[in-house]
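Q: Convert this sequence to structure tokens.
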Amino acid sequence: MLSFIVYLAGIWTFYVAQSQSVQKAFINAYIPIVLLLPDYYQAITPGIPDPTFNQASSLALFIVFIMKGKPGYRFSYTDVVVGVYALSVGISQYLALGYSDAQNLMFNQLTSVLFPYIFTKSLVEPFNLRYDFVKSVVLCLCVVSICNLYENKMGVNLWQMLLAKFFPGQGSGWITTYRFGLARASGPYAHCLVDGIIMATGYRFQRWLQWSEAWPVKIKQLDWVPWFSPAELFTLIIFGGVFTTLGKGQWLAGIIGATFVIIGRFKNRRLAMTIFLAGIIVVGIPALVAFLDYASIGRANALDPNQETACYRYELIELYMDIATEHLWFGWGLMNFPQVPGAESIDNNFLLVYLNHGIIAIFILLGIFFVMMVRLIRHGMAQPFAEPRGSSFAFTLAAIYLMYFIATATVAMMYQSGTVFFIITGLSDAYLRTSTWDGDQGNSNSKTKTAVDTRLFKFRRVI
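A:
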């Protein structure tokens, strides 16, 4: 019965949505619940799926969203893609293990994949709430970053320390690991590498806010902080949060994402893109060849722990590819595939999805990554240069997709990192479909003059 505190998240979200608005409930209730409360604790409820905090909040918000006529929602083809992905995962589990085992995963796909995608595409861009939404994400991750310092020092996860007593027997498998003599912080996200990719996403969002001059010059509650403006302080906090996870794969993803987003800061973006692509060819391809040589010698011949880890991830593909193809279309079901002794941890999300749910699910997931990146890049290249410099939202979102792709090649996209991915997909779809502004337009805090949206005057061309 103690685990029923999960339902408080749903009750609170429902109350805010009814008493204020669905948009405010999404930004001020649902997003903090997703980012601040663990997704591995469930309310064990006989006869129905066992919801997490995130799922209880999502279901409550969806009920009010439907009751109020689906504000802001407009159909797009991306809806079909995300819906088919969620359906294929549910069918996979049903075919492999039957309905009793599949109901929780089906419920998960609705409340942690499809609903968050629909919420974000409907409630942010159509109501010009981009800054409010991104600020909510950044402030929540600042809280996580500060709490991570305690875990780094003490080796104790604060969320487990405070909540485990309500969920006996749950979450105990997620233990703190160490690197460089420090505990690797995982926050409320189960694993330090999941924490790392979410923090890297938050850092990109915060840099976009800072470049867009979205934060006020002074915030009364932060007047006591010397030397730093609010924007600089939030950037510093989340930058520190990225490091608290001590995840090298996520750091690499963040560096490459930062390199990519710089394209949006150049007035001559074609030249910048050419330089970036040339860098991939000149530096990236030789680096990839060198990495494959480094990782393919086998764990037994590795010279240090870093090389052993790289060899392990390389071996996973060789060990499990034949197993995956045995159940090609819909996979083996969630973690139901035969495990190779000594290689139980599948540290590659794309291989894991292929094993669990088959070729349909993995093709759709890869399609979302690459199609959305291409659409965002094309949109960003076609837009007028965004002022202030660096405030192009298209390049920020494309960089987040690129970071996610690199990072999830080293860890499963599980718990909140999966939900955040589909939140980003909903945001990107709505941005590409409905946005009439980029950069500082609509930002009341910006000192930069707002550019005129030339699309308002399309009738002149007709005349």
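The chain has 16 helices and two strands.
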